[in-house]
Amino acid sequence: MAAKTKTAKAAFERHGLTDEQLIAIWRTMLVHRRLEARGFELNRQGKIPFASAGEGHEAVQAGAAMAFERGKDILVPYYRDLGLDLGIGLTPYEVLLSLFGRAADHSGGRQFPHHYASKQLGLYTISSIIAAQTSHAVGAAYAVKLRKEQGRAVLTTFGDGATSEGEWHEALNFASVHKLPIVFLCENNEWAISTPLSGQMGQPNVYKRAEGYGMPGVLVDGFDPIAVYGAVKQAMDRARRGGGPTLVEGKCYRFLSHTTDDDDRTYRSRDEVNARRKDDPVPNFERFLIEHGVLTAEAAEQMKSSVLAEANEATDRAEAMPYPQPSDLYSQVYAGPWEPWQ
Amino acid sequence: MAVAASTSKILNNVEAVRETLYEAMKSDDRTVILGEDVGNRGNVFLITKDFVKEFGEERVIDTPIAEASIVGIAVGMAMEGLRPIAEIQFADFIYPAFNQIVGEAAKTRYRSNGEYTCPLVIRTPYGGGVRGALSHSVSIEALFYHVPGLKIVAPAFPADVKGLLNAAIDDPDPVLFLEHKKTYRLIKGEVPDGHYTIPIGKADVKKQGNQLTVVSYGLYVHWALEAANALEQEGLSVEVIDLRSIRPMDRGAILESVRKTRKLLIVHEDNKFGGIGAEISAMVAEEALFELDAPIRRLCAPDVPAMGYALPLEEEYMSSPAEMADAMREMVRF
């Protein structure tokens, strides 16, 4: 049961965020949670072949998204970043088009869900290959610096698993050499599918590696969206000022299996997962906002209803849209004709 | 071929690459060159010597030794509107970048349904005959020509190098540009001044003939021409086609020639199994089998991992004009 609305707002570190921004962050978290659940529901109903899971990442993503300047910054995300994509302007309808693989999806129904591409949003196209996007982000940041674009920065994200890839190291190293306007945000959920942190790295703190690259490393509670916003905002501002790259680590947890095709009961105990549920950022942040008088319990319930209605509307609308045509398989291979022979 | 100027000069292949890169850097400030030792050193073959003085180290970038991210960073630059020319110092070093080329660059346009594109050139010296051993002499074209979304060019003559490199730089999609390092200073030729392009995907008949078609690319075009010219003295008439582009490949030029000569020999330095010659053989068999007067033949490298450092191990791996002449003679007489 939600706490009663307080008349006087209790003081807390809000990093300059207005009440409206705080509520917007929470709404992004709600939409994120709702649409992830929708992906699993549609999969279990046999309506879509696949969905991935980001439950537990809502706070780190919604907080980071608030530090992204729409229409200016560049986001090079990874595949578990639905909340980040939503937070910079992606709509639930676009998400459902992606889940259903419809022709109007950003990739024309080609890509797995949550691999969006929108120049308008500053959202880069990605593959599912771990850490491959980090060097693209560095290249984009190089272009921003070369063209002397003031006040613009790149945000790139990845899980803890990505930090084992050689290309991840190459990207951070190059960004540091050239003092590029970029923020590397690690969403450390402790699991690389079935491999825990202890099997991935000799010490569990990704942010500590920053020192080796000669850039600041910042640790933040990835379940606290305000703290994440504060850390990412500071890092983005530093990048925008020409101060160079920062590595931010937001510690969170993956509450569900890796995807609809995975079963995490085969590699981690229910006790572990259940114990971590107390940190679930979606109900916790709701309680926080109510306790601090930013949100009323009534407004919270209203918002949950409106998010559900929006998700349902988006689901119906996207499901009714057509699949791509078989002939669409042949488009966009090259600018010109696709034939290997001329 | 659209030639902009009527003047020309004699250049070798290194100079042709250099002149083309220089003009690209001069004419478009979105162009950047990145790779190992391309700046201060000016490339290990001195192709970009002094570029850094004229264009600055921001546009002529000495990268750390990290091939995957040389290509990956170039992909990001290309998506963000620059026109990067990435260099892999030797083709043998390209393997760490395989995912960035095959999984990322070649699929950028496709996976974003055209929202993002990847106008990127990856230049790299390849090929043997220079005592380069296992890691400075490989041919890599067969590892990449399987990949839709990628274009692959391997010119052999200086004028073709310039025209095709210009076409690659202008191209809106990723192009792998292969430069045979033995031809770098060995091969000289007339190169038109000014900007011109040769369409990617067009072969060139370097010598006319009517008894046998020889298809090749790179260094072996020159050796095939040497052999074919020698056979003229014996009264044998061999046509030599320089593919110039490996993907897309000029089906029309190959079939037109084969339908005339009724015999086909493919020579390439890369391994035989699954090589470029396999695809050409299959295509000709599908399209023109009953117009052939002899079985298709491939003269390629043996199916071993690489040529060796010791001279006999290099010579055994490589073909030669004499070996090519023998094969041509046998085919004409078949």
Protein structure class of chain B: alpha/beta
Question: What's the alpha carbon Rg of chain B, rounded to whole Å?
Answer: 20 Å
Q: Give the overall average pLDDT of chain B.
A: 97
Identify the CATH class of chain A.
Answer: Alpha Beta
- CATH topology-level fold name of chain A: Rossmann fold
Q: Uncertain runs of chain B with pLDDT below 50, 5 residues or more?
A: none
Unreliable parts of chain A: 1-7
Number of strands of chain A: 7
Helical content of chain A (DSSP H or I, runs of 4+): 40-55%
| First-to-last CA distance of chain A | 69 Å
Major beta sheet, strand line-up of chain B: 3-2-4-5-7-6-12
Alpha-carbon distance between the termini of chain B?
Answer: 37 Å
In brief, what are we looking at here?
With 342 residues, chain A is an alpha/beta fold. Chain A has eleven helices and seven strands.
Features:
heterodimer, A: 342 residues, alpha/beta, Rossmann fold, 5-stranded parallel β-sheet, two-stranded antiparallel sheet, 11 helices, 40% helix, 9% strand, disordered N terminus, B: 334 residues, 2 domains, 7-stranded mixed β-sheet, 5-stranded mixed β-sheet, 13 helices, 14 strands, 37% helix, 20% strand, globular
List the helices and strands and how they pair.
The complex is a heterodimer of chains A (about 350) and B (about 325).
Chain A: H1 19-44, H2 58-66, E1 74-76, H3 82-87, H4 92-100, H5 132-146, E2 154-159, H6 166-177, E3 182-188, E4 191-192, E5 195-196, H7 210-213, E6 217-221, H8 225-240, E7 246-251, H9 270-276, H10 281-291, H11 297-319
Parallel strand pairs in A: 1-2, 2-3, 3-7, 6-7
Antiparallel strand pairs in A: 4-5
Helix pairs in contact in A: 1-2, 1-10, 1-11, 2-8, 4-11, 5-6
Chain B: E1 8-12, H1 13-27, E2 31-35, H2 51-55, E3 60-62, H3 67-79, E4 83-87, H4 98-104, H5 108-111, E5 121-126, H6 141-144, E6 151-153, H7 158-170, E7 175-180, H8 183-186, E8 188-192, E9 204-207, E10 212-216, H9 219-232, E11 238-242, E12 245-247, H10 251-261, E13 264-271, H11 276-288, E14 297-301, H12 311-317, H13 321-333
Parallel strand pairs in B: 2-3, 2-4, 4-5, 5-7, 6-7, 10-11, 10-13, 13-14
Antiparallel strand pairs in B: 1-8, 6-12, 9-11
